[in-house]
Amino acid sequence: HAKPLACTPTKLPPIPVACPQSRYLSPMETASAREAPLLASIPSHQSQEVNLATISSIPTLATQFNYEPPEVRPLPPCLRWVRRRIFKLFLGTVFGGSLVFLIILWLILDERDDRLVFLPCATAWKDAFKYTSIPLVSIIFTWWHVWLGIQMCFYPVNFVGCCEPYLGWQGIVPRRAHIMATRSCDIMIGTLITIEEIIERITEDDFFTALEEPLSTTNTVVINNLARRHCPEVWAALPTMVKDELREKVMEESRKMFGPVICDLKQNVNNILDIKQMAIDILVENKPLLVEMFLKIGQREFVFIQHVSAVMGFVLGCIQMMLWILLNHGGDEACQTDPAAKSQFRCWGGFVVLPLSGLIIGYFTNWLGITMIFRPVEPKIICGGYVNLQGVFLKRQQQVSKELSEMICKHLVTASKMLQYIIKREDILEKVTVIYEQHIRDAVDKTIPGGVRVLAPRIYGDGTIDNFKNEIISETLLELPNHHEQIERYMDTAFDLQVTLSHRLSKLHPARFEGMLHPVFQEDEWMVLLLGGVLGVCVGAMQAFALGS
């Protein structure tokens, strides 16, 4: 840049905002407000040419954040109480009912011609115990294998085993960290807000009002250091009033300089900062954070999968029990005493039926649980408006939006992370430094009278003015980082992203919102389903041996 870049901030349509200092789209977004991300990304000399026809030609721009969830009538208090405790009531009924049934049956069948471990009992009661145990074991198994499958999606965070990646295991999410992070950030950040819109919220007046103290301190330190280095005696002899007047003058020049600096940064922000890539890099480098994010936003859904699987395990376990009863009805004793009968299917079929049904139960319950999280996508209101048939994750869109936006603004898109992202990349840091240095040089040139610029080289030698500029730049860049906390606090306040992201996430269509959690299962869904099937075969085989004994 040969001279300060003259630019005018993009003129946006009037936008109703909750905070006059923040240019975010408020919850009362209008059609004009939805156009702001597009207009903010268009240079000012072209913005006047943009019309509604151009805007409407961009897919989903006008309709991206206008989803309104259907109203669902609240259930009566008694039904709400049952709904919150329905799974516990189910477990109590099934296990408690089975226990009561077996106790009553044991008392009725007073013959003690057999033994179950240490308990004397009738043979008929022992058979009833075996049959009753089939659906109960199915509940426990399906609950356990779904829990295990979910844990294996996330843990261990680092590979455990040998000959990586062949002999051992690493959670699906941390193992595919880059893919998971990219897919989620495409929704969380890529489609919700642009870096142009974020940086546009920093205005010159707000910048100086909020950062007057650190900027003034920085100027004071720079002036003191330069004065003590070049003319210590003169500086020490100057009255305090003169020093203060000099500092005020420098502060005025700083205000004039920072205006073009901010404007220049806004116009070059796309070459400086990619917030989506920044968020992806953070999640890839910090895999525990990636795991925590998915676990937090899907916590209730993971519990739901376990509960649904346990209930379906009971239903399918009852079918298993009926098959086992039909298979062994009237032939159990013959299979044990008659060698010729042992070759018949009814004598060995249980060792096929239970493992095979275990395979079906394990695979089907995993598939059903995952499907019920995300399907159906569109809400379907039934039962007079009391019930919403929709994927359980999508039902919680409003709540998840708040939790997720809080996590994004705490861990991913913050002023501190942006500055770290810039500092870690030398090419980007150099671009920012060049912009800043050039405007400081221009400000110094404007401040130094023309006569001084002519005489100084003759008296002090060539390069005097340039050396002085370099000293100012060096001293300033050394002092500014000491006030990074105040600068970051101002930027976070000015960006005010949490309200924006929460609102837009809540207004995103469910078909796109499901992408927040679906990548956890989508990438290696077959592996989760296969795990359920394999464990089902193992548990079914153990059941067959236990019942056959």
Characterization of the model:
This protein is mainly alpha-helical and 549 residues long. It is 71% helix and 3% strand. It has 31 helices and six strands. Helix 8 (177-190) runs antiparallel to helix 15. Residues 1-62 have low confidence and may be disordered.
Give, in spatial order, the strands making up the sheet with the most strands: 1-2
**Integer-rounded radius of gyration:** 35 Å
Shape: elongated
Which regions contain 5 or more consecutive residues with pLDDT less than 50? 1-62
Instruction: Tally the beta strands.
Output: 6
Helix content: over 70%
Q: What share of residues are in beta strands?
A: under 5%
How would you classify the helix and strand content by structural class?
mainly alpha
Q: Give the N-to-C terminal Cα separation.
A: 87 Å
Number of helices: 31
**Which oligomerization state do the chains in this entry correspond to?**
single chain
Please describe the biggest sheet, giving its number of strands, its sense, and whether it closes into a barrel.
Answer: 2 strands, antiparallel
Task: Summarize model confidence as the mean pLDDT.
Answer: 75
